Amino acid sequence: MTSWNALLQQLAEAPRENGTLALQQTAAFLQQTLEDAGLEAGFLAFTAQPYRLRLAGVLALAGALLYGRALLGGRNGLALAAAVLVPMLLLAQLDYGVPVFGWIGAQRQVHVRARIPLDAPVRRLLLTAHYDTKTDVLDHVQRAPIERMAVPVTLLMMLAPAVAAVALRVGRGRRLATGIRRFAAGVAVLYGLAMFVALSAGAFAPRRSPGALDDGGACAVLVRLAEALVAMPPLARTEVEILLLSAEEVGVQGSAELAAQFFAEAPSLPTYVVNLEGLGASTDHAVLARERFTLRSLAPDAGLVELLDAVHREQFAKPLGVTAYGGATDARSFLARAIPAATLITLEPGTPVTRGLHSARDDRARLDEDAMEASVAYLLAVVRAVDERGP
Fold first, then answer.
1. In sequence order, what DSSP letters do the residues of 311-360 get, joined into one string?
2. DSSP 2
3. pLDDT tens-digit series, residues 198-217
């Protein structure tokens, strides 16, 4: 069985950003390691858009500056067009994968896929984690207020030109209209700058994230789990696939492409997805309460969560936690295709929310090898439970 040190040297000590040679080398390492363990391991290629989020921040700032200039200049039509079109373009690109600007710098990337096939399975279990990394100047907690303000700020930008035009028709209207325009323009520019900082400024950070908790530890756990599954007697009813995904950190586009390919039609077998994020911090496991898009969210599959909880009680003599917050992980892509899925995480001791991801702070020292070993044992028990009774 591959040592934790050998895995974590590759998966927790250096950045593996989308569009880089390091990402390609990590994919080759994972494929070879799984193949050496006796699995059917190969690559699933897709066209990735490594600069999608960075370009989205640039577009948000450019749109805000255009809006502010147009509104202050009394060009209400242009201001309204910017207030409507820029958010629509961002939404189309980030939530629905329309290649508005993501085609810039698009290139081939791969997922790593390992299968433990059966002759006549009655269900399929996909176990996923992502091996790519990202560096930002704000972590996900700091970004949350910016994300929540997207709809209110957009509505303000859309209403301000009309309100300013109406204000000109009342007494002292010019002064009121000027105040409205200055306020809306200021809010728009500040928000555009905030979006740029959240989405794009990380490109200039000198120290890059090695992605230990996010998500190298989970990938290492999956490799060890795959090796354990090969070593144990074959399952009776369940075909297991290990999917190590790339392009998660650029808007979960990699899993979205894969889910579209796998599940363009309803699967021939009942299929379930357990996605792993941030494993290795402790044995305090939890599931994400929801998977977020900009304007909607999806709950994890209740049956799958119930099974994960039941096994967790057996393994650790305590219930599985459920977070008070959501996220945007690879499970989102499968839930959007009506495939039952849930994201399993671990919580760092003494902290309700893991901080410092997407930064140089996310290093190997945050991983606990004993906790990772416990997560492997837990997931083995989950696989057996799925095989015996299903979600």
1. HHHHHHSSPPEE-SS-B--THHHHHTTT--EEEEEEPPTT-SS---TTST
2. -
3. 999 999 999 999 999 999 99
For the residues of 181-222, what is the DSSP string, one character each? Answer: HHHHHHHHHHHHHHHHHHHTGGGG-SSPP--IIIIIHHHHHH
Structure tokens at 237: 């009813």
Rg (CA), the chain: 23
* Cα(251)–Cα(309) distance, integer angstroms: 28
The CA-atom distances, in angstroms, between 248 and each of 49, 153, 254, 266 are 11, 27, 6, 23
CATH number of 4-50+109-135+208-389: 3.40.630.10
Q: Are strands 107-116 and 238-245 parallel, antiparallel or unpaired?
A: antiparallel
Helix, coil or strand: residue 243? strand
How far lies 6's CA from each of 11, 211, 362, in Å?
A: 9, 16, 18
Mean pLDDT of 313-342: 96
3-class SS of residue 57: helix
Alpha-carbon distance of 213 to 18, in angstroms, equals 17
β-pairing, 321-322 vs 40-48, is unpaired
11-58 pLDDT, tens digit per residue, is 999 999 999 999 999 999 999 999 999 999 999 999 999 999 999 999
Q: Are 64 and 79 in contact (CB under 8 A)?
A: no
182 alpha carbon, distance to own chain's centre? 36
State CA 48 to chain mean position distance: 14
- The widest CA-to-CA distance across the chain, in whole angstroms, is 84
Q: What is the pLDDT of residues 335-363, one digit of tens each?
A: 999 999 999 999 998 888 889 999 999 99
Per-domain boundaries in the chain: 4-50+109-135+208-389, 55-98+142-203
pLDDT band at 172 (very low <50, low <70, confident <90, very high): low
CA distance 49 to 352: 33
Look at residue 171 and tell me whether its pLDDT is greater than 80.
Answer: no
Residue 168 DSSP class: T
CB–CB of 1/227 below 8 Å?
Answer: yes
* Mean of per-residue pLDDT scores for the chain: 94
